Amino acid sequence: MNPSFLKYILQLADNCLIQGHRLSEWCGHAPILEVDIALSNMALDNIGAARSFFSICWLTGR
User: Fold this and answer.
1) What is the pTM of this model?
2) Residue spans per domain, the chain
């Protein structure tokens, strides 16, 4: 696999993980309950995407 493509996928994984962590910090602090639930779900989606990107990097980087 192309090393620059692998680096790009790793950067996407890092960005998703950091964004998911930042969104999860709002859990319980949002002004409206629906917003709180939506932010929590978006955080989980980003962390799941990061996990997928990291597994792609791990599988193709061998």
Assistant:
1) 0.87
2) 3-60
